[in-house]
Specification:
mainly alpha; two-stranded antiparallel ribbon; 68% helix; 12 helices; Arc Repressor Mutant, subunit A
Length: 273
């Protein structure tokens, strides 16, 4: 055990706080340590937040020494967390090279989005049935509050806050639907999309459009209309896929313009040098 580990949670958190912009990761680590969860699981949660936030982007190597110093732990828990994240599909471990944040291919991403559309749609339909006559209950209040926070994030242009509550809203619907196997499968695959989904909100106006979809979905759920809820949930997931693909296309076009300078000559592209 390292000296910082021996000094307890405050030392761990002080070290973790040095990572700029990782407040949510620090909070998650604080809660897990306070709950006396195994250190490996606490470090795993912190690494997930670093991946989700983009601080560890796809293809990035998990530097055990640097991450251990940042999180205030020894290298062992970082190595253990990397193995766990490999099982979750977030990390790839290459023999003699180390662990890397996984890069998700376009075809696999499209397949996961399609699977999630079906799962999320079914969860929304189940929840609409469960909340019939209970639109003023605590579950409904929780969903309304999450969408309201996203409304505020849209008005403030707060991408990070929107991204967090967007993921939470989806998890709440799946978690409240009453089907635990569905929830397990959905969360397993959604975790992989953390590598991608943030880019869906890069373009101007995408947050507002996405939250308008949330409002329509929530209205159907609270009205107890299962089939409209299913349709809205499936359409919302597929729209998210379209937003992501558009962001990728835009990013690729920008990269080509920047990295491959050309001159236009008689309608043809001619290398400049």
């Amino acid at each position: 055990m390292s000296q910082r580990e021996a000094n307890g949670p405050d030392a761990v958190l002080a070290s973790t706080g040095e990572a700029q912009g990782q407040d949510s990761g620090v909070s998650a680590l604080r809660a897990r340590i306070a709950a006396r969860q195994p250190l490996g699981r606490s470090v795993q949660a912190a690494l997930e937040r670093l991946i989700e936030s983009g601080a560890l982007p796809p293809g990035a190597r998990l530097n055990e020494v640097a991450l251990a110093a940042q999180l205030g732990v020894s290298r062992g828990p970082v190595r253990e967390a990397a193995r766990a994240l490999e099982k979750d599909g977030l990390v790839t471990v290459i023999l003699n090279r180390g662990a890397f944040v996984r890069s998700l291919g376009m075809e696999e991403a499209a397949q996961i989005y399609e699977l999630n559309a079906v799962l999320f749609g079914h969860a929304a339909a189940l929840l609409a049935e469960r909340l019939k006559g209970r639109r003023d209950g605590p579950e409904a209040a929780t969903l309304r509050a999450t969408v309201a926070r996203m409304d505020h994030a849209v008005e403030q242009g707060a991408l990070e806050a929107f991204f967090t509550d967007n993921a939470l809203f989806h998890q709440q619907i799946v978690g409240l639907c009453g089907n635990q196997p569905l929830q397990a499968v959905y969360l397993e695959h959604t975790r992989k999309l953390l590598l991608l989904r943030r880019r869906s909100f890069d373009a101007a106006g995408n947050m507002r459009v996405a939250n308008a979809e949330h409002h329509r979905l929530l209205a159907s759920i609270l009205a107890g209309k299962a089939e409209p809820a299913r349709r809205h949930a499936e359409a919302h997931t597929r729209a998210g896929r379209a937003r992501y693909l558009a962001a990728i296309a835009q990013g690729n076009a920008a990269a080509e313009t920047t990295d491959t300078p050309h001159e236009q000559h008689n309608g043809k592209e001619t290398p400049c040098c």
